[in-house]
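Tutorial handout. Part one gives the primary structure; part two gives the three-dimensional structure as tokens.
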Amino acid sequence: MSTMLAAPPAPPTPSETLAGIKAMVPLMLAVTPQGLSLGVALGQMPGHHLTAWATSGLIYSGSAQLALMTTYATSGIAAIAVTLIINLRLVLYSAALAPQWRQRSLGWRLLAGHLLIDPSFIQAQQRPRSTSYFMGGAVILFAWWQVVTGVGILAPALIPHLGALWAAAPLCFVALLAGSVKERTTLVAAGVAFSAALALGALPYSLGLVVAIAAGLAAAVKAGQS
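Part two.
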């Protein structure tokens, strides 16, 4: 039985890195409201602001970051459990990208895994063989997230409507899905994921989003086989 091997990644080039940065700019703007509102929420919690801001780099997942900070005071075990549940979707993303990245070094894969969130996963699908395209966008997004959460922590007076900004998070997900629809397989995946997200949006701890992403990936695999 023959085994289909993934094509080797394209060598890194400055032009691909720059293209990745440019492609990430609209997605950076899409996540800005969530980052600002998260910063405001973190700034209102007891403790040093620098400690709260450090979670933006260590956890690097807005919903998981806020869940950890808000539940840790009550129960450390519950906080860890909630954070892991919310970040289940990142495991699915990693599994989807593993065939493309397995030929890279361990250090590169560890860094890429830390930078892998919803926008960077979407961008990785645009040019699967170009790891420099992914890394350029992922690094600039990471840096931008640190900036906007820091602004939210230090300047809450500039952001009076915290609830309205946090409500932008699901809209960001929808925007990412819409921007990725370029072929039949992606269209099927996006349609299934969007429908599941609407139907399961009331589930606690962002489980609806996790299930929606899993359903979308499964639909993509099925559509690719048909």
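Part three, for discussion. Residues 24 and 66 are 24 Å apart (CA to CA). The two ends are 21 Å apart (CA to CA).
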